[in-house]
Amino acid sequence: MTKLIVILFWTVLSVGTIECTAQTASSTQRKAGEQGIITGADQTEEYLPLLKGKRIGLVANQSSIIGTKSSVDSLLSLGIRVVKVFGPEHGFRGNASNGAVVKNETDAKTGLPIISLYGKNQKPTKEQLADIDLLVFDIQDVGCRYYTNINTLEYVMEACGENDKELLILDRPNPNGYVVDGPVMTDDRFKSAIGIHYTPMTHGMTIGEFAQYLNGEGYLPKKCKIRIVKVANYDHDTPYVLPVNPSPNLNTPQAVLLFPSLCMFEGTAINEGRGTYMPFTILGAPALKGKYSFSYKPVGIPGMSERPNHKDSVCYGLDLREYDIAPLRESRQINLAWLIELYNAYPDKAHFFAPGRANQDISAFDLRIGTDQLRKQIIAGVPEAEIRKSWEPGLQQFKDIRKKYLLYP
């Protein structure tokens, strides 16, 4: 009797397990069918065999997830020997403010050493790579030259090339992959921590594609051996809502899509929503009082922006939280009209563009844009159509180069 009960128990349990597994698989298939896109990280069957038995270093932040779980935690739970993590701007857990120096630390959850790649140590050293057999890069990017994750990618690739380490890239969609626009940086005078590549302001590539571009266009002293796990069911026109905020101030899908256009305002007298919980969806300045009815007050917010432009002052300007993104998608362009509009509305035009720190001839705005031409055109009142025309033929030349490195239509 006891044996019969045991047999029945295990039979029910087995059926239940099979049904549960089937339901889970069916749920995963439905999810894939509904969303279409499957990131490189989520395709564990493609790369786990490459990791087993090796000492793994992981370049990651809070956007590095497998399913809904941190990639670090997931790989550890799967028996992968992760020995250390390298973190970009904002840190491994993504809670450092923009531009803040992030120090090395020990992760409280896993006990792993976290090596900061934002600050003095931008590139992994020979010593830091010595106990690593394979480095894995899994960070979400948003497709802009001034978004520093691509800088981190280059420094990591350079270090791997110099130290004969292979880099495995778990690719992720570029939410702004449909737009290749803006002036191309061609002059080394405009290189800075927010721009080191000869690309337009928005490059329209995924991290995997950008890695191929860096290898192919001679950015590295020695080519890096890379292996890419591609995103499944993706093309550059596919809308993609990020499952995790890529950085503290890109905290909504609207902010991610407006970032290429609104980040231009850094280096001007306009606050772009830093110091609020609506960053990169609003624009304003105290001097615009009486010209716009929408208002807000930036304050210091730890982990986001401690010292925003116009801190503790009421700003007046544009509320773009409900702005329809469709025209930007259809035009495949950044929005230049807002910059022209707010410059023309600003009463003290001589102080609209902030001066540069080290070189007064190159403003902070110029470093972000990658040229001083746009600033001079705005001041001179050049129409938008003529400004866009001046971006050619450089923009088309870059598009032709870009085609060689694309992994997706």
Automatic annotation (TrEMBL):
Q: Which residues form the Peptidoglycan beta-N-acetylmuramidase NamZ N-terminal domain?
A: 56-253
One Pfam family hit:
NamZ_N
Q: Which residues are in the Peptidoglycan beta-N-acetylmuramidase NamZ C-terminal domain?
A: 257-408
Note the PANTHER family from the entry.
Answer: HYPOTHETICAL 460 KDA PROTEIN IN FEUA-SIGW INTERGENIC REGION [PRECURSOR] (PTHR42915), PEPTIDOGLYCAN BETA-N-ACETYLMURAMIDASE NAMZ (PTHR42915:SF1)
Q: This protein is called what?
A: DUF1343 domain-containing protein
What organism, scientifically named, is this protein from?
Dyadobacter beijingensis
Its lineage reads: Bacteria, Pseudomonadati, Bacteroidota, Cytophagia, Cytophagales
